[in-house]
Amino acid sequence: MSVRAFRGGEAAVQNLRHFSQNLKRYKRNQRRMHESAGKSACPAVSPRITDRENAMEFVPSLPTLLAFAAASLLLAATPGPDMTLSISRALAQGKKAALFVVVGTGLGIVVHTLLVAFGISALITASPTAFLVLKTGGAAYLLWLAIQAIRYGSSLSVTKVAEAKGSALSNIATGFSVNILNPKVVIFFMTFLPQFVSADDPAVTGKLLFLGFFFIAIGMPVNALVVLAADWLAAWLQRNRRAMRAIDYSFAGVFSVFAVKIFLTQSR
C-alpha cells in the first residue's frame, strides 16, 4: 500500500468519525428541544397547588352546592318539631331561651351528620330494636313537651323570663333532645345528603360532612329569624291572655301530632 493510499484511508476514517460525532450532537440537540417543548406545554405542577387541591376534595362542585343550598333553604323553612319548639319557647321564655334551643337543634344535626357520614345511621335503621327505642323515646319526649305546654303555659311574666335567662343549658339540651330523638331526621339525613354525593367518590365521607355543616349554616339563621318574629309577636300576645292560652293548647296539640307521627315512622 502506498503512503498516499494510507493517508487517504486515514482521512476517510477521520471524516467518518466526525460525521458520527456530529450525528450524535444533532440527536442530542433534538432531544433537548423536544424535552423543553414538552415542559413548556405541560408546566410542572407546584406541590403546594397539588396539596391545596387535595385538601379541597371534600367541597362539592358549585352547581351541586347551589342545588343543595336551595333545597336546604326550603327544608329549613318547613315547620317541624324543632321549629315548633323554638316558637313555643320564644313565646314562653323570650328570644334568648329560644335561640339556645336553636343551638341545641344545630348540635343535634351535627350528630346526625356524623352518623350518616360514618354509616351508623344505616345500622340504626337496619336494627328493628334500635329504631323502636329511638322513635319511642322521641314520641314520649314530645308528649312530655305537650303536657308541659298545658301545665305551665306561655306565661310571659317578668319572673319567668328572668328564670329562663339562667337556663341556657336546659334549653340547649331540650333542642338537642327533640332533634336527636326524631327518627324522621335520621331517615331524612340518610336519604337527603347522599343525593348530592356520588357513592364511588373517594372523598364521599368528607363531602357528607361538609354538606351536613353547610345545612346547619343555612338552617340556623332561618330558625333564628323565626324566633325573632315569634318574640315580636309575644309583645302583642302579652296583652291578650286568652289568645296566649289558646296558643298553648295549640302547641300541645302540634307536639302530640308530631309524637304520633314519629311513633308510626317506619325504618324502610
TrEMBL record:
The chain crosses the membrane at residues 58-77, 98-124, 130-147, 168-190, 210-234, 246-264. This is Lysine exporter protein. One of its GO terms (molecular function) is amino acid transmembrane transporter activity. It comes from the Bacteria. It holds the Pfam family LysE. GO terms for cellular component: plasma membrane. It is found in: Cell membrane. It is a multi-pass membrane protein. It comes from Sinorhizobium fredii (strain NBRC 101917 / NGR234). InterPro entries: LeuE-type. Keywords: Cell membrane, Membrane, Transmembrane, Transmembrane helix.
